[in-house]
Specification:
This is MND1-interacting protein 1. The protein is mainly alpha-helical and 161 residues long. The protein has 2 helices and 2 strands, in the order αβαβ. It binds zinc ion (2 copies). One zinc ion binds next to loops.
């Protein structure tokens, strides 16, 4: 009878132990699951952070690019307006005095008076009115600059005439 009791107790102990082991194992599994979950969360978080950073970097580089683009466009604008200005002034003033300080253009014939006649249709403004009057008959009514027949001449007045 004694040994039966012992066996029973032993079985009980084994059962208890098994139960304990099971509990521990469950706990272990739970904590492992918890750990995995936590690790996954950290991974996701860090991936999100990485994505965020990547997105930010993309945004930044896009901004930089558009900045550069607008810089280039601005440069282009100034380039174009500069070249337009240069073209305009060169077409308006083919005989601009070589003196940088002089603001008027001198007659290509007498080289003294300010130009004061515009020829049509060539629109050249290259000689002064006195020279035009003096030479119109001898030059045969041709523009002294381009030799195109002058169909009309317009007396113009500059700031110093
Ligand atoms: Zn002249
Ligand atoms: Zn002409």
């Amino acid at each position: 009878m004694q040994w039966k009791q012992e066996i029973k107790e032993k079985e009980h102990m084994v059962a208890m132990l098994a139960e304990e082991t099971r509990k521990v194992q469950i706990h272990k599994a739970e904590s492992r699951a918890q750990l995995l979950k936590l690790r996954k969360k950290v991974e996701i978080d860090s991936r999100l952070a990485r994505d965020d950073r990547k997105r930010l970097e993309d945004e930044l580089s896009r901004l930089r690019m558009s900045c550069q683009m607008s810089d280039m466009l601005l440069e282009d604008d100034s380039f174009w307006s500069n070249s337009i200005e240069a073209t305009a002034s060169s077409s308006i003033a083919p005989y601009e005095s070589s003196h940088e300080t002089s603001r008027h253009w001198n007659c290509m014939l007498c080289l003294q008076n300010e130009v004061s006649v515009v020829f049509l249709p060539c629109t050249h403004q290259v000689i002064c009115f006195p020279c035009y009057e003096r030479n119109i008959k001898t030059v045969g009514g041709l523009c002294p600059y381009c030799q195109v027949k002058i169909e009309e001449s317009i007396r113009v007045y500059g700031p110093s005439s």
